[in-house]
Amino acid sequence: MSLNRRLYSGSVGGDVEGNETTPLLLDGSAPTKGASFASSVFNLMNAIMGSGILGLAYAMAHTGIVGFCILLVVVSSLAAYSIHLLLKICDQTGINSYEDLGGKALQKTGKVVVGISIIIQNIGAMASYLFILKTELPAAIDSLLDPGNTGHAWYEDGRLLLTLVTICIVLPLSILPKIGFLGYTSGIAFIFMLYFAVVVVVKQWSIPCPLPHNITTLSGAIKISNSSDSDCTPKLFVISSKSGYAIPTMAFSFLCHTAILPIYCELDRPTKAKMQKITNVSISLSFLVYLISALFGYLTFYDQVDSELLLGYDTYMPRDIMVMVVRLAILFSVLLTVPLIQFPARKAAVLLMFERRPFSWPIHIILTLIILSVVLLLAIFVPDIKNVFGVVGATTSTCLLFIFPGIFYLKINRGPLKSFDSIGAGLLVVFGFIMGIISFSVIVIEWVHDS
User: Fold this and answer.
1) φ, ψ at 215 (rounded to 5°)
2) How far apart are CA 154 and CA 36, in angstroms?
3) Is 223 helix (H, G, I), strand (E, B) or coil?
4) pTM, whole model, 2 decimals?
C-alpha cells in the first residue's frame, strides 16, 4: 500500500467523537475512487497472516484446547479494539502513519520509540521467515531427489542455503527503491496459507498416534519419538513453563496495526465505521484459519508437535505429494514476503536517522545491508523459531498491539477521560504491560532452566 496519500486533517478535525459516517477526504479534494470493501479485507488479511500460523499448534499443545481458544478470542478481540482506538484518533488528527501518531502523542520520544519497535518487530518477522527457509529448504530439495541419495551434500546445509538465497534473491529485491510488483504476490501468499490449513486438516488422519518410535528422516538421521497411547488424548487445559509462549505467538500472529492506516487511506469513501467492519471481518476470518490449523496440527502430533509445525510433516510424511506442495508453496511465499517486510523496517530507520534528507542511494543500500545482515544472523544462530515468536511477541508485538494504541488514545483523544473508550484504552495498556512482563519473564526463566 502506498504511504504517500495523506488524510486531510481538516475533514474531521472538529468532531471530537469521530464521525462514523463522514468520509475522510484525501489531499483536501473530493473523494476519489479507492479500494473496495472486499479488496481491503483481502489486503488486511494478507497483512495479518504470516509465519505465526506455524507456531500456533505448539501454543495449543502447551495451553490446552480450551485454554488456547480462550486466549485466541481475547487476543483477537483486543486487536480489533485497539484498531478501533487507532481509527478514532486517526479521524481526529488526520494522521496515517503509526510513527507520526507516536510523535503526536509523545513528541519526539514517542516517534523514536514507535520507530524502534517497528524495526525490531519487522526484523523478528523477517528472521522467522528466514528460519523457515533454513529448516524447510533442505527438506524440500531432498524430497525432490532420488530416495536412495542420502549423502551429506552441500545443499543439505540449511545455513549455507539460507545465506545463498538471501544474497542472490532477497538482497536484490530488497535494494530496489520500489517493489510494488511484489504486492501482486500477496494474493498468492494468502491462497498458500489457506492450502496449508487444508493440508493440516486432511493429514490429521494420515499420521498414526502414538507416533512411530524410530523414524529415518530425509537426511538419513534417526528420530526417536517417546509418544505413547496416553499422549493421544487431547488436553483441555495445560499450564507449563512453555505456556509463556502462547500469548506472544498470538500477538505476533495478529499484529497488522502498521498496515491499518495506509489501507484506511486508500479505501473507497473511507469512514471509521467502514474500516472497522473491514477489520472485524479480516480478524474473524484470520481467527478461523488460525484456529483450524492449530487445532488439527495439535490433534496430529499432540505433545510431540514441533514449534514450527511443518517440521513434523517433514519427519513423518517426507515424500507425501500434498506435503511437498505445501512446503514449496510456503517457501515461495516466504521468499517473496521478506523484501516486503524489510521496506517498512528501512522506512522507520530512515525516519529516525535521516528524516529531512532526500533519497540517497548510499544510505538506502547501507541500511538494507545492515537490516538483512542482522536478520540473517538471527535466522542462522537462533536455535528455535519459538524464541523469535516469544521474545518479539512479548516485547514489540505487545507494544504495537496493546500498549501504544491505548497510550496514544489517552494522550490524543479530546473526549472525557471517564468515557468507555478511555477506560478501555487504560485497561488495554495495563493488559499489555502485564502480559508482556509475565510472558517475557517465563521465557527467560525457561531459558535459564534449559541452560
Assistant:
1) -125, 135
2) 48
3) strand
4) 0.83
Phi-psi region of 28 (alpha: psi -120 to 50; beta: other; left: phi over 0): left
CA 359 to chain centre: 29
Q: Is the peptide bond before 210 cis (omega within 30 degrees of 0)?
A: yes
**Helices 98-144 and 361-381: crossing angle, nearest 10°?**
50
d(CA 419, CA 88): 13
Q: Are 86 and 78 in contact (CB under 8 A)?
A: no
**Residues 234-291: tens digit of each pLDDT:** 899 988 878 888 999 999 999 888 888 878 887 888 888 999 999 999 999 999 999 9
Say if residues 124 and 388 touch (Cβ distance below 8 Å): yes
pLDDT at 359 over 70: yes
Ordered DSSP codes for 240-279: -GGGGGHHHHHHHHH--HHHHHHHHHTBSS--HHHHHHHH
- DSSP for residue 396: I
Q: Which of 166, 302, 151 is nearest to 226 (CA)?
A: 302
Cell numbers for 273, please give them.
Answer: 465505521
pLDDT digits (tens, 9 = 90+) for 283-334: 999 999 999 999 999 999 988 888 888 888 877 887 788 888 888 888 888 8
**Look-up of cell digits 510456503:** 330
